[in-house]
Structure formats: structure tokens, C-alpha cells
């Protein structure tokens, strides 16, 4: 059954009107005297017809933008996320064009974001690693030439945000060449990293055109972070990496996650305090998702009530005039935000070339070594499970897991092809 005709019951209630107490007017944020100003030599302002559309774009999405606050003015343009281009920039115009074509012209969405696992090498052993199964697969990593081809195919599809992940991307011997290869007139380059090599690489990454860097910190308690990472001194190295980036005038933030237990224990508040103290531009707060090393641990799931609580904390901080901006998965995925990006505006490619809707979903639709990225993207969009918009993380949804992940026999090698999931669904559920 084609995804466009498949109706998914939303497990969370329809969102009430967002509380105005959490809102600061979009233009109030832009006029804040404390809003960081950052100069970036690789980010240029869009020109021509697109510029004239931008004021209408801001007005159209003002309600969506209100619960957010800009992380900085980059070359005078408002940036809302370390992984997304500033509004008014050349890559930002590509995002606008994609949205216009989808909403107004009723065309199929194209992948704006691509997360690429550039390597399977890592200098840590994290207890919660979402890429754990890919790190241990033993399959050869994409070559530099193959990575360049994937990037070019992504840009030709309309991509505007290229995000490096791993493994640990800073261990890739040609990381700087990868960053430099991306056409900055079409796309910004961001990176998720554990931060250990940032002090030695910061200057070169800046010259290559890296836009934003998110350093993973799992706990504001250094000892707890080090235990989760399996590396003594990991916390201090992460902080040193952040401080080096900020000292070089680069955009830097903290990437973290919140589980049900962490939310109850004040994990969000403590990491916010750390981010405020370090003066990072953004906190990127993921929900704890049962995937990778945690794929069988459903106890970490926040649930509807937990996600609702976390959304309120995020909106409260984004309404504050001080402290870092927050991009939170619980808010973005919800009907208050923009909905889940997986397979809609986002695509993930692991180090072996397998293509998935997102880095949390171990279901593959093809491999870039065997087929063009455009063919695989169309297969995702034509699927029953990703052909419709979803206002929740599928990997946290019990019904989605019942019809996909829970069907897999123990020991199944991940990622699993989507056609295998469909066959199991027919055999076990009669669908």
C-alpha cells in the first residue's frame, strides 16, 4: 500500500495552542543586544527574487518560529540551528524553495538535510551509542571518492545542510577535504563530535568552511560523562574543544540527550547550566531513543508526558533573554514544531553506504554503492511508513516498533532492508 494512502493514528493528542507565556516576538529576539554576532567567510547572502520572498516567509512561519530563538546573527543573518543555514543566506534560500514547492506547488519533498557517518572509527566506547551496530559491522567504509559522489548527489537533490557524524568524524584522515569539497553556495556543513581533537583541528576546520559544531556531552557531571563514554578525561577534552572553537569565533554548541530517568533527575537543568557557563550558542537536546546500543531498552523512552514536560522546559529557555538557544527533538518532532524530518526532509547514510530515513532508524532502503541516491530517496518517499508526515519519533512509537523493529528475530544484522521488514509484517501480522 502506497504511503500516501496510509493513515497513521497519532498517539499523542492534538497540540493545544502554544502558551504565549513562552513566546518572545521574532523581531524582539533579533534586536537583543546580547545576541552573538558571528562573521563567517563562507556564508553569503542570497540575492535576487528569493530575497523578496523572505519577508513573507518570516511572516508565514512566525508562529512556528516564536518558540525558538536565534543562536546568533551570522554575517547579519539570523541562524536558528548549528546544523541549518541562516535565514537569508544562499543555502537558506534553497530551504525556502524546497518548502515553497512542497506547501504551495504540492511537489514531493526533497532531502534538505543529510547526515553522513563518514567513518566507523571511534576513540570512545559509549554505553548509548546509536551507531554501535554499524561500528562493528566489519564492512569497508566509503572511500573519499565515494563520499564526494554522495555529497554531490545530495546537493543535486536540493540539499542545504550536510552533517558529519561517525564513529568519530575528526578521526577521518581526509575530514578537512570532505568539508572543503561541499559547495558553500548551496549548503552549510555541520558536525557532531566528541570534541577530543577539536583543539588541534579548529583553525583548519574554520578555513575549510565548517559552519557549526555540536560537541556531545552526556552529563554535566564530569565523572558520569567519562563513565558513559568509557574514557577518563573525556569531559575535560570536550570542554576544551568547545572553548577552542569559541575562542576562534566559531559557532559551537552541546549535543545531549534526556531519558525518562534523566528528566526526573534534573539532567536538562544541569546541562543548561553548563551550556550557559560555557556560553555556547546552542544546546541540541535529543530524546533518549531505543536504538543502537539501546535498541532493546524501551525504558529510556520519555513517553507523551515526558516529551510534553521537556517541550515546556525548552520553550521556557528559548523565551529567556539569556543563556543558549535550544533545539529539542521533543519540540521539533511534535505538532507544535515541524514534525519528524526522517525520510521527509532528512536522510542518513552510514559508513558502508546504507541509506536510512534517519540515524536512529536501522532500516535501509538501498546502498549508494549500488544505486543513485535519488532512486533510494524515491523509494523511501513511496514507502508505506515514510510516505506520510509523522509528528513523533517513529523509534519511540510503540505501534511503529510493533510493526517493524519488534518483528526482527534476535541477532538480525542491522540495518535491515525494508523489504525484509515488509515480508515479516506479512508473515507475522498478516498485513
Task: Please give a structural write-up.
Helices cover 36% and strands 13% of the residues. The chain has 17 helices and 14 strands. The protein is of the alpha/beta class and 431 residues long. The strands form 3 sheets. It has a 9-stranded mixed β-sheet. It has helices at 26-30, 49-60, 62-65, 90-103, 132-135, 144-156, 175-181, 198-208, 222-229, 234-247, 260-264, 267-278, 303-319, 329-332, 373-381, 398-402, 418-429, and strands at residues 37-38, 72-74, 77-79, 113-117, 161-165, 188-193, 212-216, 251-258, 282-287, 325-328, 346-349, 355-356, 363-364, 416-417. Helix 7 runs parallel beside helix 8 (198-208) and helix 8 runs parallel beside helix 10 (234-247).
Set down the secondary structure blueprint.
Elements: H1 26-30, E1 37-38, H2 49-60, H3 62-65, E2 72-74, E3 77-79, H4 90-103, E4 113-117, H5 132-135, H6 144-156, E5 161-165, H7 175-181, E6 188-193, H8 198-208, E7 212-216, H9 222-229, H10 234-247, E8 251-258, H11 260-264, H12 267-278, E9 282-287, H13 303-319, E10 325-328, H14 329-332, E11 346-349, E12 355-356, E13 363-364, H15 373-381, H16 398-402, E14 416-417, H17 418-429
How far apart, in Å, are the first and last alpha carbons?
10 Å
Mean pLDDT: 90
Question: What does the largest sheet look like?
Answer: 9 strands, mixed
The tally of strands reads: 14
* Radius of gyration using CA atoms only: 20 Å
Q: Count every helix, treating DSSP H or I runs of 4 or more residues as helices.
A: 17
Helix content: 25-40%
Low-confidence stretches: 1-14, 16-24
| Percentage of residues in strands | 5-15%
What structural class do the secondary elements suggest?
Answer: alpha/beta
Shape: globular
Q: Strands of the biggest beta sheet: in what spatial order? A: 10-9-8-7-6-5-4-11-12
